[in-house]
Amino acid sequence: MKLKTFAGGIHPPDNKQWSSHKAIEDCPLPAEFVVPLAQHIGAPSVACVEIGQHVAKGQEIGTAKGFVSVPVHAPTSGEVIAIEYRSHPWGPSLPAIVIKSDGDDRWSTELQPADPADLSANDMIERVRQAGVVGMGGAAFPAHVKMSPPPEKKVRTLIFNGVECEPYLTADHRMMLEEPERILQGMALLQSVFGAERVVIGIEANKSDAIALFEKHCLGTAVEVVALKVKYPQGAEKQLIAAVTGKEVPSGGLPMDIGVAVHNVSTAAAVTDAVIHGRPLIERICTVTGPAIREPKNLRIRIGTLLSHLVEVCGGLVEQPGKIVLGGPMMGFTQLGFNAPATKGTSGLLLLRTQDIDPRPEGPCIRCARCVQACPIRIMPTTIAAYARRNLLAEAAEYCAMDCIECGSCSYVCPAAIPLVQSIRYGKAAILAEKRKSS
Amino acid sequence: MHAVLYSLLPACGVAVYFFGPSALSVLLIATLGCLATEAVCQRLMGQPVTLADGSAAITGVLLAFNLPPSSPWWLTLLGAVIAIAIGKQVYGGLGSNPFNPALVARVVLLISFPVQMTTWSAPAPLGSGLDLVTTATPLAEWKNAVMLTGQLPDEMQGSMANYFLGNMPGCLGEVSALALLLGAAYLFYRRVLTWHIPTAFVGTVVLLSGLFWLINPAKYPNPVFHLLTGGLILGAFYMATDMVTTPVSTKGMLLFGIGCGLLTVLIRLFGGYPEGVSFAILLMNAATPLIDRYLRPHTFGVLAGKA
What we know:
By secondary structure, chain A is an alpha/beta fold. Chain A has 13 helices and 17 strands. Chain B is mainly alpha-helical.
């Protein structure tokens, strides 16, 4: 069978063998949780509890501020001991609520299960919003916003993203194998919300067991299981849509512009928890992996668990890591240490040894065009990066800098080790800053 | 980059076989001259010396390939200095030069020293006991005949088989299509070369020269002759594929190759010089920034947005 895919892209070693065979384990609860108020794209939530207050598991502790925002919830029962700036995976210290566990892990009594048959689409969207569900593939965009397209943008095709193309990560893979019903229920709920005609789940061909399992579950249903070629970034939203539908999302537009919506499989599972069980998003699957960790694992972790705790649960470090990455090696965030907490978007904690990273000195660009061939969005990374580094922002924008999806394929293939995607990211931020200043 | 050096070895061997010690000395002087010039320039500019990257050595070998086997030592050395100092380092070194450095040197020498640069030797294979004697290249042989009589010569000195093997007068690295194609096959295998520029270049030459040949076979030589004589194979596979001086997009590369082919045939058939490959490539080098500007890949979703 010919596997579907997109044009361009790269073939990094997938390195999933460290953890792909490890069943999901419940991570033992730490004594203390640090829950950041900003874990999603959009306005951070605002603390609605006070220091000294007792909170129940699942109780709202940060209220959403505005439409593109979601609340955050207590990951366990206990006492609020601080509301202060704490280390955050994004880099700077950001406001967080610190909860000392009381050891009971007792659910809030206010959370109510519901029968989806009694709920309207709007009820379901509201339950998803209240549960603080965000896109769990990494971008952490509030799910209820994606579920509420304007009426003129009818979503006909709903795609579920089980691609997990980032090397090393196996969290979605394990969830698909071990909790397919949770995902399938969420898929059905989302289909009814969108009224989508076509429902597809896309899975990369290196997860043949997950493909087989979903084909079995989806037999006789309207859900198509699409096996996709192993290529990075196959799981990027636009590339997945191109592979499945053959259509391209317009430059500067959104998937809904061509009648498509994409949700991660683990987001679908979170939707099931929210709509049917009334449970907010307080846990997720996270792959702790890499050559520098003693025992790689797929862990079910509570949001707010410190990275240091995850390292401890996985048997500690083999040696001092050369690089600590939250997420995958291609698009993850490098960390300075283990003080930051896991958030709703934390799909993995990757620990590399010094010898696993390749700090070559940067050389001159000889215009070999490998970045141009690899770019899945078909821009000219070397040209844009060169403009961005000289602060020629208008030129960078003219060469479609803003279309960059920051997948890092260009930096990966560059034989001269030029930080291409890094330079383009800088350029994009500078272009946006200019725009804000002039408007 | 070192793969390119290895790929040039078969053609070096053929050059030394047919043209003997003089070919070897041109190769050595050009290569060492380029390395020395690069080191001196980088020293003077206070930059790290980067001879190990292989690029100056490649320029040296390619320059030698573009010189007659009988080139005097001073001509070769001058060429090496021009290639690296004026062709490359003044622009900022590796990656910044707009023109192919070896071709810049060749054309400067050709215009400045036309006698030395067009004195050709008939091949004298090693062990044959022959001395190098002066003669004309096949392209010049044809061009002289056409200029004098308006017709192809009745009989050419060489045969197609000899042209293919490299048993003909010419620049020392351009003569053997066989050796050059062997090296190119290695570069394709190593994925250093992509097919776009060589195919577009050679294809255009074959099509266009074929057209003229069909119109008047008495005056215009057939496409195989164009393919095997002169510097077409060397130019199309090694000079026009220099990444630094050629476009980055697929469409741009195809246009670059087509432009090179067009200019080569026009110069060969209607220009003052019998050979036009180096001028064609340099002219297209000059057009590269324009091509890169106007023939960009279509960004994902841009056409979709317009539809």
